[in-house]
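User: Structure please.
Assistant: Input sequence and predicted structure:
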Amino acid sequence: MLHVTRQAMDVIRDLIAAADTPTRGGLHIRLPTVPRSDFDRLEGVDLEVVRAAPPSTLQLRAGQDCRLFLDLDAAQYVRDKVLHATHGTDGAMRFVLTRTMPTEAREVEVAEPVQES
């Protein structure tokens, strides 16, 4: 299953809060649209803050208030990988998927779907 570093969890929470996302929102992780023939050369995933769970996603939680929505197609790609947050050359935060497992990385858990009120 996917793991998330503490810094990545903090950045995700900040992104969700900055977007004024409701409690049922979170970070959507999906594969980019590529031809099937290019799938083996895939080098990353698309990330987007969303206001609610997209259809056909697995709802995950990494720590408190860090909700992730993982497309079923992306689940195999992120398996046994770690989502890191790091500073890019321009100073902005970037997310990176690696197989390097720091001791503070937490495995995501399947979350109960958030009910509409």
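The domain at 3-110 is CATH 2.60.300.12 (Hypothetical Protein Aq_1857; Chain: A;).
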